[in-house]
């Protein structure tokens, strides 16, 4: 992202092409932002119904990725372009990132989860600078500093919240989100590398396959009893299906944005999901916001 800004707006066909590409990236980024907000809403709904199965929520998404993109791989009749164990490591990181963030909805508010996700941005910038040799201007780094400042205010507001409508254990939830955000950063940068240097379809197929296997193992150990205790009414099934569908569309679209603009642009685009999370919390849940949350935003 930082490397492209220096040539945007230049006259001629090349400049027009880059500007058009940037607009596509911005539009795709906002589509992804709406999808991630819908997954947050679904997770929050399940948490409010006492359903605690974060890995199970992501399992169907990985199965869909494996079936759809795995089918394309079989049709191609082509071998893997990268070693399988790289995809396995990426899948483990991705599964645990999803687990930590979805788990956080049991302890803190949807708004805090969305806001604290911005910790992914400085992590992504560091990793892309370190491993992908991406260059960033000082304005981008200043923006990251502001994001981190907002993150601190969100944690502070949860610690000193007068009421606990936002969650049973806000600080614990905040720490889970931060841990998940760091894993998301590793996953995003890894995906950017594979998309730009290997193949998008292969990435999605192998991430789905290994993600489903890792999730199934984790479910059998951690969530088997929880799944047996769930009363599978429409109120429980619909958020599960909504989460899986939104995640499948999100995972399918992310590589497109990563190829156009990179992991930093992806995570900056997702910041607008915070706005939609605040709207949901006010109008859907009738919750009051801490005075520090608008400032943190």
Characterise the protein shown here.
There is one protein chain. This protein is mostly helical and 297 residues long. Helices cover 77% and strands 0% of the residues. It has twelve helices and no strands. Mean pLDDT is 82; it is low at 1-17.
Question: Helical proportion?
Answer: over 70%
Major pleated sheet: none
Low-confidence stretches: 1-17
Global geometry: globular
Strand and helix layout:
Layout: H1 13-48, H2 54-76, H3 84-104, H4 110-116, H5 120-131, H6 138-159, H7 170-197, H8 200-229, H9 234-260, H10 263-269, H11 273-283, H12 292-296
Summarize the structure.
With 297 residues, the protein is an all-alpha fold. The chain contains 12 helices and no strands.
Write a concise keyword list for the protein shown above.
297 residues; 12 helices; mainly alpha; 77% helix
């Amino acid at each position: 992202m930082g490397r492209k800004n220096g040539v945007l707006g230049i006259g001629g066909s090349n400049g027009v092409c880059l500007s058009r590409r940037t607009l596509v990236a911005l539009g795709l980024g906002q589509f992804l932002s709406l999808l991630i907000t819908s997954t947050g809403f679904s997770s929050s709904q399940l948490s409010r119904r006492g359903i605690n199965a974060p890995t199970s929520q992501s399992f169907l998404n990985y199965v869909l990725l494996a079936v759809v993109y795995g089918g394309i791989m079989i049709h191609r009749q082509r071998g893997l372009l990268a070693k399988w164990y790289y995809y396995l490591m990426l899948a483990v990181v991705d599964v645990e990132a999803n687990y930590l963030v979805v788990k956080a909805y049991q302890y803190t508010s949807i708004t805090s989860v969305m806001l604290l996700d911005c910790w992914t941005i400085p992590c992504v910038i560091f990793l892309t600078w370190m491993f992908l040799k991406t260059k960033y201007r000082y304005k981008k780094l200043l923006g990251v500093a502001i994001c981190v400042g907002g993150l601190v205010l969100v944690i502070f507001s949860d610690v000193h919240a007068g009421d606990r409508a936002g969650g049973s254990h806000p600080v614990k939830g905040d720490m889970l989100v931060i841990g998940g955000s760091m894993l998301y950063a590793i996953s995003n940068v890894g995906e950017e590398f594979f998309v730009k240097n290997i193949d998008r379809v292969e990435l999605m197929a192998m991430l789905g396959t290994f993600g489903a296997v890792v999730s199934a193992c984790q479910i059998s150990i951690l969530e088997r009893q929880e799944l047996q205790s769930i009363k599978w009414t429409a109120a429980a099934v619909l958020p599960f299906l909504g989460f899986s569908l939104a995640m499948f569309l999100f995972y399918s679209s992310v590589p497109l944005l990563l190829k156009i603009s990179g992991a930093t642009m992806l995570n900056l685009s997702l910041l607008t999901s915070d706005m939609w999370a605040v709207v949901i919390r006010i109008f859907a849940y009738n919750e009051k916001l801490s005075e520090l949350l608008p400032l943190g935003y």
